[in-house]
Amino acid sequence: LAELTARRQGRDGVDCPVCSRKPRQAPETGSSALRRCDRGRPAAVYGPTSPWLTVLLFSLVAVSGFLFGLHKITDSDTLWHLKVGQLVLQQGPPHVDTFSFRTVGREWIDKDWLFQLSIYLVNRLFDFNGLSVLAGLMIALAWVLFLYGCWDERTGPLSACLFLFSLWAASDRLNLRPEIFSFAIMAVYFVILEKDHAKPTKLLFLLVPLQALWANIEGIWPIGLSIIGAYFAEALVSRYVSKPWIERPEKPAPARLLVLLALCSAACFANPYFAKGFLFPLTLLREVSMAHYFKEAIVELRPPFAEGDSTFVRIPFVIIAALSCLSFILNFRKLRPAHVLLWAALLILASRATRNVGLFSLCACFFAAINSRSLLAHPNSGLRAGLLTTASALALFYFISIPTNKFYQLDGTTRYFGPGFPMNYELERPVDMLKALGWKGKIWCDEISAGYLMWRGAPDFKVYVDGRLELYGPKLMQDAFERRNDFFSFEQEDLRWNFDAAIFVRARSMDPGSLALVDKLYADPHWALIYLDPAAALYLKDTPEQHALIRQYR
Q1: Model pTM greater than 0.85?
Q2: Does the N-terminal peptide bond of residue 379 adopt cis geometry, omega within 30 degrees of 0?
Q3: How many angstroms separate the CA atoms of 430 and 444, rounded?
């Protein structure tokens, strides 16, 4: 009886999908009520997603994101970030370098100082287990916020599928790095801007302090200004360009977004380096883009599918790019200019550098989920069941493969599931020896070993090179990469910088050039091998200050 009454009376709601006319206004009757337009054709109204199903989908995304972050701290950059965080707590943000003997006293604009301070405080309170948990929580938070920003009860299972798949595409970037904080901040940007697009909200100006926070966490904060700029451009187009294929909000307000853009730009000056900190991302972008050697030597700066890249995590990136592009094509009549601009810009960045793949995958899934609202306005129960099954299967794959480390075997990384720091780290014993001897000096090393040496030994240990590209610049970094596998180049650098020690990780010294360098250093009477194990080799130069140590430990 309730259904028959609803058929006759109609129901308030969306336009009739048959004739696009408004339904007659009538009281709502029954949970499975039907509505009809003025022409009397009944059309099914699909009820909202069950609250339990909504909780399930959000939980699948959150738990999957947490699992991706809960792995051993194997990224060497994390270690020197911790050491800098300790320095920030003791002395404030650094302005000159004190860690490398090649750049001591050089001006250093530390774009990540607030991130470093945060993880140092967590490490101080909860050790390395807390850092792994922090990474998992930040990744879960970022993905859940993105899902919330595009959530729609009709297309919820599809959105959950997309974001679960994006975890796979971004998996090799899900380490304890500043960018996982940037992911969460970007999600807040999209949530607030989408709400303001639907209906003006005062929450919009919360982005001003958030932009100031972002400017002190990571150097990619100009993306925040770009997002606001894209929405401002969309508001301008919506107000002044009359096109049938542009979705027009009821009250486009470009002036509000222009004021917001100006305030957020001014907020970026709120950093320890003021104008230099504001301009620094442009300087770094110019150096990295012009220095082709960076792209050849540093994996994260190479384009996707470069030699040695993992196809296992690149195929999902291609699928997400294709699906999001298809969603724009099918949703052509309701295109959002802001989404198109940002999607195209991020796709270009991702195609040029692997480090941007995670950024693009997140935003592309967000745009595709919003486009699907029009494409799947009335999904049938079979499609919803299929999408729910797919989301559950993806989550189940993560729940099984990540804790058993099968996922990390497939993607070719050296990560291991579980919190903490690997107890059998390759440099632990030789560094323990140097610390026990009270050794101080300049130590030759590669950029991966430098993170551990800085964390354990600074300021007593001065390293040759580390992962701070913004400090060394293209010339010094290229010298470090090109001269580490040649004994003659090593001697030239030694004459220039006067090394006191040299350390080699044998797992990274198995190419012919490195083996020749190790052999010749062993035969050189000016150097003495004082420590050797299956993981590492430690040499000291035979100087008057170190002669007694060499006689004892050669």
Answers
A1: yes
A2: no
A3: 14
